[in-house]
Specification:
Length: 90
Amino acid sequence: MKHERRNHLKTLGGCLKDLDHLCLYLIKILPRFILVAIYRALYSSKFGEVGGLYHVSQAPDEMNCLAQELEMLVEKSGLSSPAIRKVLSM
């Protein structure tokens, strides 16, 4: 899914911020067990609970809007996106 997002942005003429490039690079080179440990530590911390999980649980309208926008971009790009389509169909 991480590569699909980048492909859609490139196809539609969008640009990735430097932070996105760094994050994508780190996700690409770091072993999965390290990424899992990082995400577990983040989401089990107070920062992750308040900054991420709580926000998502309190903003269903915003999440639905973002999902609709993502679906529109996927359709507009015309690229195959099995992972994104799977998530959107949940």
